[in-house]
Amino acid sequence: LVVFTDTGITSTYICTTASTGNNPSSGGTAHANWAYIAKGVTDPIPSQSGQSGKFLTTNGSALSFGEVSAGITDADQWRVTSNFNGSTGGGDISANWERNDNNFDKIGNGMTESSGVFTFPSTGIWRIIVCFNANGTNLQYLGYSIHVTTNNGSSYSEIAENYDSCGQGTAYFNNVVVDAIFDCTNTSTHKVKFRHGTSGNFSFEGHSSRQRSGVTFIRLGDT
């Protein structure tokens, strides 16, 4: 029983027939007078140098070190800071936006906003959660929609909407949630904005120190 290195691979062998002057193997093939006990492999585990914090993975034929997911890499929350009046039809919610600065300071770089248009800090699959409050009287419908552009604002398309009615004979509060997932493949061209739609006059409810009407952005994973 011997240990022998053949073309850089070390294996163990047992002699099956008495012989003299024959190496146990050559080019990875055992000699007729020898048999493998345990056959070695080339570089069974890749070098660990510089791989701190990574995990060992396989593609089915080879091993390599992969990156450990950081989980949620971007999350941000914005709100409308003050009330405004809306009228029949619809319009963009374009003013008085601020980041939640009371109990949360974003994860990652955070969204940027200009006149109600939001730019993503990184590409990826994003969840967009809208929660808006308003009050009105005798409104057949009052709701909101999420609009995205993939050409830097040349055109927008609606990807989600939700509506409710509001009040019969007196003013009632109205709360609407709109939830969508958007694939941002280019941070220069892919952006998002929000619109209201209503059958009559209403008062949109904002607040400067609590989330009364706002939007949450969460990056779920890579595009």
Short account of what is shown:
The chain is an all-beta fold and 223 residues long.
Question: Descriptors for this entry?
Answer:
20 strands, 223 residues, 6-stranded antiparallel beta sheet, mainly beta, 7-stranded antiparallel beta sheet
How do the strands and helices of this protein lay out in sequence?
Layout: E1 2-6, E2 9-15, E3 25-26, E4 29-30, E5 34-38, E6 55-58, E7 63-66, E8 75-80, E9 84-86, E10 89-92, E11 97-99, E12 112-114, E13 117-119, E14 124-136, E15 139-149, E16 157-166, E17 172-184, E18 191-198, E19 202-205, E20 214-221
Antiparallel strand pairs: 1-2, 2-5, 3-4, 6-7, 8-11, 8-20, 9-19, 10-18, 12-13, 13-18, 14-17, 14-19, 14-20, 15-16, 15-18
Protein model, in words:
The chain has 223 residues and is mostly beta strands. It has no helices and 20 strands. The chain has strands at 2-6, 9-15, 25-26, 29-30, 34-38, 55-58, 63-66, 75-80, 84-86, 89-92, 97-99, 112-114, 117-119, 124-136, 139-149, 157-166, 172-184, 191-198, 202-205, 214-221. Strands 8, 9, 11, 14, 17, 19 and 20 form a seven-stranded antiparallel β-sheet that branches. Strands 10, 12, 13, 15, 16 and 18 form a six-stranded antiparallel β-sheet that branches. Strands 1-2-5 form a three-stranded antiparallel β-sheet, with no helix packed on it. The two termini are 55 Å apart.
